[in-house]
Amino acid sequence: IKVDVRIIAATNKDLEEEIKKGNFREDLYFRISTFPIHIPPLRERREDIPGLAEHFLKKYSAAMRKKIKGIRREAMKILMEYPWPGNVRELENVIERAVILAEGNYIEKEEIILPAGERKEEIIPLKELIKKVEREAILHAIELCGGDKEKAAEMLGITLRTLYNKLKEVEDGS
Fold first, then answer.
1. What is the pLDDT of residues 44-80, one digit of tens each?
2. Residue 169: left if φ>0, alpha if ψ -120 to 50, beta else—which one?
3. 41-124: CATH architecture
Protein backbone atom coordinates (compact mmCIF):
# COMPACT_ATOMS: atom_id res chain seq x y z
CA ILE A 1 0.00 0.00 0.00
CA LYS A 2 1.46 3.29 -1.08
CA VAL A 3 0.78 6.16 1.29
CA ASP A 4 1.49 9.83 0.65
CA VAL A 5 0.98 11.97 3.74
CA ARG A 6 2.25 15.20 5.19
CA ILE A 7 2.47 15.76 8.92
CA ILE A 8 1.99 19.16 10.45
CA ALA A 9 3.24 19.38 14.01
CA ALA A 10 3.45 22.26 16.45
CA THR A 11 5.30 22.78 19.69
CA ASN A 12 6.17 25.54 22.09
CA LYS A 13 9.51 23.89 22.87
CA ASP A 14 12.88 24.52 21.25
CA LEU A 15 13.33 21.06 19.72
CA GLU A 16 17.02 21.58 18.94
CA GLU A 17 17.58 22.35 22.62
CA GLU A 18 15.47 19.32 23.60
CA ILE A 19 17.65 17.11 21.37
CA LYS A 20 20.78 18.38 23.15
CA LYS A 21 19.18 17.57 26.51
CA GLY A 22 18.24 14.10 25.29
CA ASN A 23 14.50 14.81 25.57
CA PHE A 24 13.70 14.51 21.84
CA ARG A 25 14.93 12.04 19.23
CA GLU A 26 17.20 13.60 16.63
CA ASP A 27 16.10 11.22 13.85
CA LEU A 28 12.44 12.10 14.46
CA TYR A 29 13.30 15.81 14.42
CA PHE A 30 14.90 15.51 10.97
CA ARG A 31 11.94 13.51 9.67
CA ILE A 32 9.40 16.13 10.71
CA SER A 33 11.38 19.32 10.10
CA THR A 34 11.31 19.31 6.30
CA PHE A 35 9.69 22.73 6.15
CA PRO A 36 9.77 24.44 9.55
CA ILE A 37 7.58 27.49 10.04
CA HIS A 38 8.26 29.81 12.95
CA ILE A 39 5.26 31.80 14.13
CA PRO A 40 6.26 34.51 16.59
CA PRO A 41 4.30 34.75 19.84
CA LEU A 42 1.34 37.13 19.95
CA ARG A 43 3.28 39.61 22.12
CA GLU A 44 5.66 40.09 19.15
CA ARG A 45 2.85 40.71 16.66
CA ARG A 46 0.44 42.98 18.48
CA GLU A 47 -0.96 44.22 15.18
CA ASP A 48 -2.74 40.85 14.89
CA ILE A 49 -4.65 41.29 18.17
CA PRO A 50 -7.58 43.41 16.85
CA GLY A 51 -8.24 41.08 13.92
CA LEU A 52 -8.01 37.94 16.05
CA ALA A 53 -10.19 39.49 18.75
CA GLU A 54 -12.85 40.42 16.18
CA HIS A 55 -12.71 36.90 14.71
CA PHE A 56 -13.23 35.29 18.12
CA LEU A 57 -15.94 37.84 18.93
CA LYS A 58 -17.90 36.84 15.81
CA LYS A 59 -17.35 33.14 16.50
CA TYR A 60 -18.58 33.23 20.10
CA SER A 61 -21.32 35.82 19.51
CA ALA A 62 -22.80 33.53 16.87
CA ALA A 63 -22.39 30.42 19.03
CA MET A 64 -24.14 32.13 21.96
CA ARG A 65 -26.71 33.84 19.73
CA LYS A 66 -25.71 37.31 20.86
CA LYS A 67 -25.66 40.41 18.70
CA ILE A 68 -22.38 41.95 19.84
CA LYS A 69 -21.23 44.51 17.29
CA GLY A 70 -17.68 45.09 18.45
CA ILE A 71 -15.13 45.82 21.15
CA ARG A 72 -14.97 49.26 22.76
CA ARG A 73 -11.72 51.22 22.41
CA GLU A 74 -10.92 50.99 26.16
CA ALA A 75 -11.39 47.21 26.08
CA MET A 76 -9.19 46.89 22.98
CA LYS A 77 -6.51 48.99 24.71
CA ILE A 78 -6.42 46.43 27.54
CA LEU A 79 -6.08 43.61 25.00
CA MET A 80 -3.28 45.43 23.17
CA GLU A 81 -1.29 46.09 26.36
CA TYR A 82 -1.48 42.58 27.84
CA PRO A 83 1.62 40.37 27.19
CA TRP A 84 -0.36 37.21 26.22
CA PRO A 85 1.86 34.49 27.71
CA GLY A 86 -0.75 31.94 26.55
CA ASN A 87 -0.69 33.34 23.02
CA VAL A 88 -3.72 33.10 20.72
CA ARG A 89 -5.47 30.44 22.84
CA GLU A 90 -5.42 32.78 25.83
CA LEU A 91 -6.81 35.65 23.74
CA GLU A 92 -9.58 33.34 22.50
CA ASN A 93 -10.47 32.38 26.09
CA VAL A 94 -10.58 36.03 27.19
CA ILE A 95 -12.86 36.96 24.27
CA GLU A 96 -15.14 33.97 24.90
CA ARG A 97 -15.43 34.99 28.57
CA ALA A 98 -16.15 38.60 27.54
CA VAL A 99 -18.94 37.45 25.21
CA ILE A 100 -20.46 35.41 28.05
CA LEU A 101 -20.35 38.45 30.34
CA ALA A 102 -21.46 41.02 27.76
CA GLU A 103 -24.81 42.61 28.47
CA GLY A 104 -24.87 45.16 25.68
CA ASN A 105 -23.99 45.38 22.00
CA TYR A 106 -20.30 46.00 22.66
CA ILE A 107 -17.57 44.38 24.76
CA GLU A 108 -16.76 46.84 27.53
CA LYS A 109 -13.46 47.05 29.45
CA GLU A 110 -15.16 45.58 32.54
CA GLU A 111 -15.89 42.42 30.57
CA ILE A 112 -12.23 41.83 29.72
CA ILE A 113 -11.15 39.51 32.52
CA LEU A 114 -7.42 38.83 32.57
CA PRO A 115 -5.59 36.44 34.89
CA ALA A 116 -5.48 37.50 38.55
CA GLY A 117 -2.98 40.22 39.24
CA GLU A 118 -3.00 41.77 35.77
CA ARG A 119 -5.68 44.40 36.50
CA LYS A 120 -5.98 44.56 40.27
CA GLU A 121 -7.65 47.95 40.19
CA GLU A 122 -10.48 46.70 37.99
CA ILE A 123 -11.32 43.24 39.39
CA ILE A 124 -15.05 42.52 39.26
CA PRO A 125 -16.34 41.28 42.63
CA LEU A 126 -16.91 37.52 42.49
CA LYS A 127 -20.58 37.81 43.48
CA GLU A 128 -21.23 40.20 40.57
CA LEU A 129 -19.30 37.99 38.13
CA ILE A 130 -21.24 34.87 39.19
CA LYS A 131 -24.56 36.71 38.78
CA LYS A 132 -23.60 37.83 35.26
CA VAL A 133 -22.56 34.33 34.18
CA GLU A 134 -25.64 32.80 35.83
CA ARG A 135 -27.91 35.30 34.07
CA GLU A 136 -26.38 34.55 30.67
CA ALA A 137 -26.60 30.78 31.20
CA ILE A 138 -30.27 31.00 32.19
CA LEU A 139 -31.26 33.26 29.30
CA HIS A 140 -29.29 31.13 26.85
CA ALA A 141 -30.91 27.90 28.12
CA ILE A 142 -34.40 29.41 27.83
CA GLU A 143 -33.61 30.51 24.28
CA LEU A 144 -32.25 27.06 23.36
CA CYS A 145 -35.42 25.46 24.74
CA GLY A 146 -37.66 27.74 22.70
CA GLY A 147 -38.93 29.54 25.80
CA ASP A 148 -39.84 26.32 27.65
CA LYS A 149 -38.71 27.17 31.18
CA GLU A 150 -39.27 23.65 32.49
CA LYS A 151 -36.89 22.21 29.87
CA ALA A 152 -34.42 25.04 30.51
CA ALA A 153 -34.41 24.30 34.25
CA GLU A 154 -33.81 20.62 33.52
CA MET A 155 -30.99 21.50 31.11
CA LEU A 156 -29.38 23.69 33.79
CA GLY A 157 -29.79 21.05 36.49
CA ILE A 158 -31.95 23.27 38.71
CA THR A 159 -35.56 23.15 39.83
CA LEU A 160 -38.22 25.14 38.04
CA ARG A 161 -38.75 27.12 41.24
CA THR A 162 -35.03 28.02 41.37
CA LEU A 163 -35.21 29.11 37.73
CA TYR A 164 -38.15 31.42 38.47
CA ASN A 165 -36.34 32.84 41.52
CA LYS A 166 -33.24 33.53 39.41
CA LEU A 167 -35.37 35.15 36.69
CA LYS A 168 -36.98 37.38 39.30
CA GLU A 169 -33.48 38.43 40.46
CA VAL A 170 -32.57 39.24 36.84
CA GLU A 171 -35.74 41.33 36.40
CA ASP A 172 -35.18 43.13 39.71
CA GLY A 173 -31.59 43.85 38.68
CA SER A 174 -30.20 42.34 41.88
1. 999 999 999 999 999 999 999 999 999 999 999 999 9
2. alpha
3. Orthogonal Bundle (1.10)
Nearest to 74 by CA among 119, 134, 131, 127: 119
Interacting residues of 143 by C-beta distance below 8 A, sequence separation 6+: 65
Q: Where are the alpha helices (DSSP H) in the chain?
A: 15-21, 26-32, 49-63, 73-81, 87-101, 126-144, 149-156, 160-172
Which CATH number does the domain 125-174 belong to among 2.60.40.10, 3.40.47.10, 1.10.10.60, 1.10.630.10? 1.10.10.60
Rounded CA gap, 23 and 109, in Å?
43
Q: Rounded to 5 degrees, what are φ and ψ at 162? A: -60, -40
Classify residue 71 by burial, with Cβ atoms within 10 Å: 0-12, 13-18, 19+: buried
Question: Which residues, 6 or more positions from 60, have their beta carbon under 8 angstroms from its beta carbon?
Answer: 95, 96, 99, 100
Is this structure's pTM higher than 0.70? Answer: no
DSSP type of residue 118: S
Q: For residue 35, how far is the Cα from the chain centroid?
A: 31
